Amino acid sequence: MRAMSVVRTGPAESTPLALSDTPRPEPGPQEIVVRVEACGVCRTDLHVVEGDLPHVATGTIPGHEVVGRVEVLGRGVERYRIGDRVGIPWLHRSCGRCRFCTTGRENLCPTKEYTGYTVPGGYAEYARADEAFAVPLPEGDPAPLAPLLCAGIIGYRALKVAAPPAGGRVGFFGFGASAHLTLQLAARLGFETIVYSRSPTHRKLAERLGASEVLEPPGAGPTSPAGRLDSALVFAPAGEVVLQALGELDRGGSLAIAAIHLSPIPPIDYDRRLFGERRIQSVEANTRADAREFLTLAHRFGLRATTTTRSLEAANEALVDLKAGRIDGAVVLDPRALGPTGHPGDRSG
Ligand SMILES: [Zn+2]
Ligand SMILES: [Zn+2]
Question: Cα of 269 to ligand 2 centre, how many Å?
Answer without folding.
Answer: 31
